[in-house]
Amino acid sequence: MGPLSHAPMQPCPRPERETQGRDGNVSVMDPANGRVTLHDVARELGMSVTQTSRALNDKWDVAEKTKERARAVAAELGYVPNLEARRLKTGSVRADAIGLVLPQSELHFSNAFFAELLSGLVATATAKQIEVRLTVGVAPANDFKNYEQALVWRQVDGFVLVRTEVDDPRIGFLAEADFPFVAFGRGCENPDFPFVDDVDHVMSPIVEHLVALGHRRIACIIEPARFSMSHHRFLSFENAVTDLGIPVDPDLVVEADFDEDSGYVAAQKLFQRTDRPTAIVAQNDLLALGVLGAARDAGIRVPDELSVTGFDDIMAGRYATPGLTTVRRSPRIVGETLCLQLLDLVNGTAEADPQVLLEGKIVVRDSTGPVR
User: Fold this and answer.
1) Which of 43, 173, 177, 301 sits most deeply, having the most CB atoms within 10 A of its CB?
2) Are 283 and 221 in contact (CB under 8 A)?
3) 3-state DSSP call for residue 17?
4) What is the set of domains in the chain, with CATH numbers?
5) Which residues, including other chains, have CB under 8 Å from residue 259's CB and lie 6 or more apart?
6) pLDDT in tens, 296-335
7) Which of 277, 268, 272 minimizes the C-alpha distance to 218?
8) Rounded distance, CA 338 to CA 27, Å?
9) Which residues contact 116 (CB under 8 A, 6 or more apart)?
């Protein structure tokens, strides 16, 4: 990690607070004059220290409601586990688990790319006897509740960050905490943190293929622009088109979401133009499948009247009608790479700030053809 500086944090004074256990006895806790202990939490819960410890350590034989109540009380009291004591007792504070905070949009796992990425990540972790712990992200992006809890309770040894934003606050938070993480997407320019991303010229093969077929009015449907992957893929597209002497028309760049429906709507906008494009480059296969659906419903023949390309080479694109021309960059390999990179960081065997750039390979199918 690069050098970091931040203002020293001042501890906030805690007022004395009355607590009442199951037996009705009132006690006074003053965390400012002494660290809250496991005994304090147990007394508040009306449970034994052993029961409380097992609840807070997520043991299998403790009911979920008991675990939730124990965590809530511990958080209210400001209890922080004594990791040094645990280290002396067990020789390690490793959780043997890595964390991934799921975007709420991926909770239903309908995104084929994300599902394959997760499959590769989990399979690789399992082979290394490492657990993958999933949780659902909260909004806004600068709410670090999931990450703070995992750090305090040492629930995981590191994080994989997905849906990385161009200016992602999670990166600064984890870097300042000196907590291992790997991002899928490089975020800002000149990053000094570990990530997995595309090579800079990843869109060049697609653009060169379309230009060789005679296309000059080439539209681009992008994922939400605040995300790193969208930003850098569009830069790659823009550079590839410009290098071939074709100006980029801002009116032919449409921002969408990640799925088929948003690709369908974006294509409809482009079809309304009197000078509609002869080719559409979509930043992922799901968007491209939406374009194919919109073209079919509009009576536009692919590839005779419109060429369409995607990115990722998911299974649905291979069996679409017509088959989708795309860039193959295996989601499963992305997941495997993210996992191995993070485990190297956790184990202290990685290079400083390892950064992996993955190549893509164009796969030409029937959705592209010459301008007629």
Assistant:
1) 43
2) yes
3) strand
4) 17-90 (1.10.260.40), 97-197+333-358 (3.40.50.2300), 204-329 (3.40.50.2300)
5) 110, 111, 286, 287, 290
6) 999 999 999 999 999 999 999 999 999 999 999 989 999 9
7) 277
8) 49
9) 314, 330, 331, 332, 335
What is the amino acid identity at position 241?
V
How far is the C-alpha of 54 from the C-alpha of 325, rounded, in Å? 53
pLDDT in tens, 163-185: 899 988 888 888 888 889 999 99
Structure tokens at 223: 């994922």
* Owner of token pair 């649905």: 316
Neighbours of 321 (CB within 10 A): 10
E-state strands within 42-114: 97-102
Name the residue type at position 159.
F
CB atoms within 10 A of CB 357: 13
- Between CA 346 and CA 236 the distance in angstroms is 32
How far, CA to CA in Å, does 279 sit from each of 73, 303, 362? 59, 9, 16
Q: Tell me how far apart the alpha carbons of residues 310 and 281 are, in angstroms, rounded to a whole number.
A: 6
Long-range contacts of 28-34 (CB under 8 A, 24+ apart): 29/77, 31/77, 31/78
Q: Which pair of tokens denotes residue 213? A: 């077929």
Question: Measured between alpha carbons, how far is 281 from 74 in angstroms, rounded to an integer?
Answer: 52
Fill in the amino acid letter for 130: I
Q: What ranges in 78-201 are assigned the alpha helix state H?
A: 83-90, 112-127, 145-152, 169-176
What is the distance between the alpha carbons of residues 249 and 53, in angstroms, rounded to a whole number? 62
More confident residue, 8 or 326: 326
